[in-house]
Write a structure and sequence with these properties.
Layout: H1 2-23, E1 37-40, E2 43-45, H2 47-55, E3 64-71, E4 74-82, E5 88-92, E6 102-110, E7 118-128, H3 130-133, E8 142-148, E9 153-157, E10 163-167
Parallel strand pairs: 2-5, 6-8
Antiparallel strand pairs: 1-2, 3-4, 4-7, 5-6, 8-9, 9-10
Length: 168
């Protein structure tokens, strides 16, 4: 009788332990958007697309990011090189740096035709920041890192409106 009670108790403890261990799963820290989707005409969100574009920054049609400014809820990026503003695309990985000041990374990519690319053309391209952060936060509280998709260059727009440029 005593052996049967010990055996039953041991079986119950093993079952509860297995249930506890199998019920726990690791939480993912990143967005799970494997397939990119369009947030706006010139704004895509996709983690894999972001990473692949970041690794492949060596384009024949290299443009230069000249200026990044924030006007209300719109980010305006002035570039040298390209053809028209519709030829540029922003890619967001879906992540938000949550430490203060918060931060967003965007890759800017030229998607126009090679024969239309003019290295001396200056254009301003805009993207709606509310599509990224929503209505719950103020866009002035964020760093926006605009990563050049054609060469190694990152321009960071700070919350106070100043910019810093990193080139290699």
């Amino acid at each position: 009788m005593k052996n049967q009670l010990v055996f039953t108790f041991s079986g119950l403890m093993i079952a509860l332990s297995m249930l506890f261990l199998l019920g726990c799963s690791k939480e993912s820290n990143g967005p799970e958007n494997e397939d990119p989707f369009r947030l706006e005409t010139n704004l895509l969100m996709g983690n894999k697309l972001f990473l692949n574009t970041l690794e492949g920054r060596n384009s024949d049609n290299a443009f230069e990011v000249l200026e990044v400014v924030r006007k209300n809820e719109v980010l305006e990026v002035t570039v040298k090189g390209g053809d028209n503003a519709g030829s540029f695309q922003f890619i967001w990985d879906g992540r938000v740096q949550e430490s203060f000041p918060m931060g967003i990374q965007l890759i800017m990519l030229y998607n126009g035709a090679n024969e239309d690319f003019d290295i001396n053309e200056e254009r301003t391209v805009s993207v709606n920041l509310q599509k990224i952060i929503g209505e719950r936060n103020n866009v002035n509280d964020y760093h926006f890192n605009v990563i050049n998709g054609s060469k190694i260059q990152t321009v960071t727009l700070n919350p106070d409106g100043t910019t810093t440029t990193e080139k290699k």
